[in-house]
C-alpha cells in the first residue's frame, strides 16, 4: 500500500505575480534646458529652402527648357539643346559641328582662377603663419586688419583700383616720376587678375590662420632643438597642421574666382571673355535664358565634384576640413 503525501496548500503570498513588461515611453523626451525644439527652427528652414535651394532648383529647371522665338524667358518644353550648344553648333542646313568657343571661355576662366588661387596661397601662408605666432592681442588686431576690406562694398573697392591703375593714377604718376613713362594697366587682363587676387586674398588668409592659431609652436621649437632645418619643420610639422585650412581656402578662392564677374568687366574692360561675363550676357544681351542656366549648372556640378573630393580626402586622411572662414 502506497502512502501519498498530502498536498500542500498554496499560500497566496508565495505565488509570484505575473511579470509585466514595461512599455517604452514613446512620448518625446523633453528638451534640455536651453535647447529648442524643431518647431523653433521651422522659419529658418523655410527661408533657407526658399532663398537658397529654390533659386538653384529654378536654374536647373530652366536649363532643360526651350528658348522662345523672341525675347527672354523660357518655353516649358523639355530639351537638351542648351547643353548640346555648349559643345556643338548647328547651321541652317542642320549640320552639327564641334564648337570649342565656350571651352576656350572655360579655359580662360580656369586659368585666371588657378593663377588667383596660387598667388593667394603663396602670399597667404607666410602671412597666416606670422599672424599665428604673434601674441593674442596682436593676433586679434591683425585679424581685424585682414577683415577691414569686408567693411566696404566690392564695387567701391573695385572702383578704387580703377582710380589707382588709370593713366592719371598713383602707379602711373610714380612711374612717370621715376622716368619709366606711363604704362597701360587699366582694362587689361593684368588688371583683372590683380583685382581677383586683391578681392579673394582674405578668403585664403583666414582659413589658414584658423588652422594654425591653436597650434602649440613649442613643438616646432623642439624640432629646431633636435637639429631639424627650417624647411623640414615647415614640411613635416606646420604644413600637415595647416592642410585643412589650405584646402578650405583653395576652394573658397578658386570657385568664386572662376565665376567672377565684377573684376573682369570693370578692371579688364570686358576684353577677356570669362564664364561670368558669358552667363551675364546670355541672361542680358542674348536673352538666352536656358543656355545661361545650363552654364550655371555646369559650374554648380564642378563645385559639387570639388566638395565630394574634399569629403573623400577628409574621410581617408582623418582630418576634418571645414569650408568656412
TrEMBL record:
Belongs to the binding-protein-dependent transport system permease family. CysTW subfamily. Residues 1-29 are annotated as: Disordered. It comes from the Bacteria. The keyword Transport applies. This is ABC transporter permease. Gene3D superfamilies: MetI-like (1.10.3720.10). Residues 12-23 have a biased composition (Polar residues). PROSITE patterns: ABC_TM1. Keywords: Cell membrane, Membrane, Transmembrane, Transmembrane helix, Transport. The chain crosses the membrane at residues 36-64, 110-129, 141-164, 195-217, 237-258, 291-313. Pfam families: BPD_transp_1 (PF00528). InterPro entries: MetI-like, MetI-like_sf. It is found in: Cell membrane. It comes from Leucobacter coleopterorum. Residues 106-310 form the ABC transmembrane type-1 domain. It is a multi-pass membrane protein. Its main location: membrane. CDD domains: TM_PBP2.
